[in-house]
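Q: Hi! First time doing this. I have a protein sequence and I read that you can turn it into a structure. Is that right? Here it is:
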Amino acid sequence: MASGMPPHASGPWVGAGRLLGRWKLWLMPAVLSSLVALVLSLLYMGGILTPESSLHRMPVALVNQDEGKPLPGQRANVGTQAARSILSAGSSDDRVRWRPMSRAKAQDELASGKVYGALVIPKDFTATVGALATSDAKSRPALTVLTNPGVGSLASSLAGRITQNAAHQVSVSVGKQLSASPEVKQASAATRVLIADPVEVRTQVGHPIGAHSGLGLSAFYYALLLVLAGFIGGNIIHNGVDSGLGYADTEIGPWHSRRPTVHINRTQTLVLKMAMTAGLALLTTSLIMLATIGVLGMDAPHAGLLWVFSYCAVLTVGLGVQAINAAFGSLGQLVSMFVFIALALPSSGATVPLEAVPGFYRFLGAFEPMRQLAAGVRAILYFDARADAGLGRGWVMIAIGFVVALAFGFAATRYYDRRGLHRMVPQPG
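A: Yes, that's right. Below is the predicted 3D structure, encoded as structure tokens:
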């Protein structure tokens, strides 16, 4: 036996150059790696390149508090006219969904993340507009744009841009109306320039979040940590158990070991892996919270609830990984990567809102786990753990995912066991 040759090997050594000429050795890696690269590129870049042109019914509140009497010759006050103009323009613009409501209702909707921003017409809007053409003018009329950083920096920015454009259109319309009055026609050139665009737009934070919230992105990255903990932890347990039971070899650098095979069927193996997943999820969840909150100081006003939600999320993802691996074997890790990572990230709505992505991603967002977990975490971190802010849906989808993982995994393993499709024990070549 040649020096350094494994004890089970026989025959002459084979060089890499000779093996590179075998096209069958190239086929499977080339097909899979090419498909993964192509699909990931289309999925990830397709969801972020054109957010403005992909806008679809982004919810924005419209608050008209104007209590002034109509100006001479007008049937409605200026605020009502402005609100009607905005709604009329919005009815033909599928990008935005203007929602008329009171100021209290708008504040509640901002506090639950149901609207991404708001445009507020103040009580004295008609009075300040009417005074511009007289000597009683003391200040410019103003509209207030309310932002909602809790829905994410991009979503809040897009909503702010929409409301500011609407406010500018109102200003131009008011300016044309005022410019037609005899008083303005006789005013100085500087006054006429001012009145042509008379409305001031003020921007305020409608629902503030903590300073250690990553400008509304901490919920996304925290949810990503939960998915990765469940995905990676599940695969580590899967591979570790297979090695420990003698169904796979263990190689660390040049060191190789193979344990005696434990005779256990597929169903009992899945029970073992899922039980270990449930136990180790306690540790990984606690470490995630220790690192993000204890060490880095992330704002987390409901830490206890966040831990419970996080544990259930990590556990459900881990169980899903074990079920997929049990059903698909060596391809399971690739399948679970697409289910929990590749398809989930661009459809999560946590960085780019679902209202600003193509319809395919909105479809995925209805059931992909990342969307549900991000919504639940966002509700806990930013929206006082309100069920209607996404936490209720998050719990429901975690429960559904838990049941589906158990049903799918055990259905597959029991079928294999009944058919006598037992796992193969590795044999030396």
